[in-house]
Fold each of these.
Amino acid sequence: MERNKILEVIDVSYSKNDVEILKNINFEVLSGEFVGIIGPNGAGKTTLAKIIVGEIRDYIGKVYVKGRIGYVPQIKDINRDMPVLVKEFASMGLYGKKGFLRFFTRQDWKEVEKKLELVGILSLKDRPVSKLSGGELQRLMLARALLYEPDILLLDEPEAGVDQMGKARFYELIDTMRENENLTVILISHDIGMVFQKCEKIMCLNKTLHCQAPRERISPEDLRKIFSEDFDIWIRGQKHYEREHEH
Amino acid sequence: MINLIREMFSYSFVVNAFLAGLLLAVSASIYSPIVVLKRMEFIGDGTAHAVFAGLAVAFFFGLDYKPVAILTAVVFGLLISFLSQKEASENTAVGILLPVFMAFGMVVVSLIKGYTPDIMSYLFGNILLISTEDIYYLIFITFVTILIYLLMRREILYFLADEKTAKFFEVPVKFVRTILLVGLALTVVSVVKISGVILVGAFLVIPGTISKVYAKKFEHLVFYSLFVNILSMFLGIILSYLFDLPPGPVVVLILFGMYILSFLWKNK
């Protein structure tokens, strides 16, 4: 299948209060790609996500997006105090299509339920969001993003606050979405193991992009540059790591 | 009991007080959960103090106080909306502007020659002094508030549940915030006469705090707040009539009692 350029970031830099957060970022994403952006804390990953989705606008450079972005933010940003039902929360994803002051029809609610079913939480539709586990909340955010009918899914550290089981189910879902709907996925993550397992292309970010290549071409050296730590074990497995480090 | 109620309602000021209480209960039940969930508990106090500055200006120039109070409250609401979009929280913005408006009001009051009892009565309020004109204003405010709630229910829900991400899904977050802050400011103008500047916060914070504990969905918040408001208003007015007490503070104390009871009930 021919892959078109769906996102292009050209020479993007961003500073806040005279502190340089991102410097000369250049990359492109093709449709259907699964791209991982990794980097240590404070590397500017979430800032880059905010620039891509348009929350931050006072950056230098250019960002071209062809299509809609379904943003899945970190679950810690959700106001868990707010008594809102799962289905109501998910319906936010339909808002753009409906518009201001428009009431939801029965068809709209069916659409919401379809997406909740797709992510496996339809049975929780009438439960308050505050009662969900981290993994369930993450899947709810995914359902909301999918209701927006995105061309690109941008996941900002989906593993944060989610247990191992929840994490595994979440990534299974992402795989299914990609297979069925040719979604482009950009995954911002701390979880280097998961990024290397899932993503076709990996970018190493620490203020600037230190590497940007298909997964198999990323070397431990590339990771050492941004993390200042040995990540060989993550990339090539325990046995390889032990063999290499025997001497 | 029936005789007592009959006797109470034979006075027009009591009827006005009940009507005002009922109307205020409706408006406050919509704004109170918003105030609590957005953690802008001091917005009511801030607006009330701003209104005090407006009243001072109106008395100084011999103007009709109502339009000036409304204008001041709206300007205050818009300023809070503007500042809170510039990386200050609503409470910080209130913290900055409240003393400024209050100080300005005090300076203007000091320039008014002679005693200023009318302004001072607004510091403490009195529901029994509600005029028919006040009732018309309250009807208007309540109508506008209900309209905002019914038409923008979905937008308000998204704004409260996940303001940060709501804008990515094209929810007009800035507009919602501004409408709510202006509506809230207008409600505070109507509350001030009942509760006074000093007690206004209780009407906007306590009902929302109680309803938040029990609500499972957005509508519950509003209905539980409405229940709390109506009960406290009516009980407060009846008790203050029976024991010759100031109604505003009595209502606030009842609200606080209900808060304690709800807390104990939840943790029993």
Amino acid sequence: MVNDPATFGRIAAANALSDIYAMGAKPLTVMNLIGFPRCLPQSALVDILKGGAEKVREADAVIVGGHTVEDDEPKYGLAVTGLVDPEKLISTVGARPGDRLILTKPLGTGILATALKGEIISETDMAEAIAGMQILNRYAAEVMLEVGVHACTDITGFGLLGHALELAEASQVGLEIEASALHIYPLVAEMAAIGLVSEGSYNNRQYYLPRIINGATITPELMDILADPQTSGGLLMVVAAEKTDELKKKLLATGCEAFQIGVVIDGPPGRLKVT
Amino acid sequence: MKTLDCRNQQCPAPVVETRKQILAEPNVPLTVLVGDDTARQNISRLAASLGYQVAVKEADGGFSLELTPGIPQEAASTPPSAQGRTVVYVGADTMGTGNDELGHILLKNFLFTLNELTVPPDAILFVNNGVKLTAAGSEVIEALKKLACNGVDIASCGLCLEFFGLKDQLKVGRATNMLDIVEQLHQASRVIRP
């Protein structure tokens, strides 16, 4: 993902905590899960854990333990337990026709990570995305709880396409996504154009394409963005039309992004249209 | 034909290795063997973006991609001017930092030498102290006139000329405004700042 161990740790932690925030919950305890090769210096392992701990502290949660296993390449994940009043739990169920879709981070981290791995770009070139991936979805979630939304999910490995479709399926609604409203990190389009697209992206498009109403009209460039697997992506919030401006205003005031990327439409359920 | 075997490589190595090979030896046909569909699609896109034709054949356990340069040799070495506008931005009357006297001489030489390019820049913009080079008393007026004759747009910041009291002293090219300067820089494919 990235070469700096502490940054890697922070991104992994922000990514792991994200699910809890998407549900409107508060993280309480965290277990570290680490895979680490013997050939790397132990200081890197310490730095990964320090980076993770930093984000866990920012989340006001506590690390209660964990496991370390020998592995061929460094891996770090966190198992997070959170607390939420079942009455206030936010899920992928509840989107209603006419609701608006708000996304809180730009897209394209998968393409940039592939380009970085291929040494076509440096970490400096993708500084904006590296910063974005370290941002906790906590702040966006706090605004979401204050304003009130109908549904929410976080955008991770299945890309915007996959997670939006899962939400449409769960809520039994259709979604309309506006291509021109999608925001990407710098260099994403350039890197996709020269074929730096991850295997996950092709898996995503293959699996989800049949559920796109106008799949045949989507250009490869747009598909790259829709299907790109995200690491520590933003929250996709589904909000009543009349609360949209308030939500966007408060997100922006908190320092979060607030891209209005589409609307919920009346069926066909579990399908998505890109305009 | 050169063959690159990427069958045992993991994404993104096949596309990265192919790109390296193409950049190292441009405009040479190349065959790439890949083991999976991700590599096939990524390399096809890379090739298309670099102007290559791609022919895909299923080979045992994967694909064989034949990449043929689609653009003729001469098009690949098109002179810079054909690839968008080149704008030279002169924001001072010296070149580089260190010694101003040396800087004056260097900038003078730079502007003289522009005349020796086979394809001159599209425009030269003079801003701040740079306008002293297009006004009376400058030693490069003749060189700039020669460039102007070759179609180079010589433009000096009007506000800057006014500031230095040189408004009536402009000897080559035209006076311009910030909107034009911003647009010229924004639309340029490359901006050269001596």
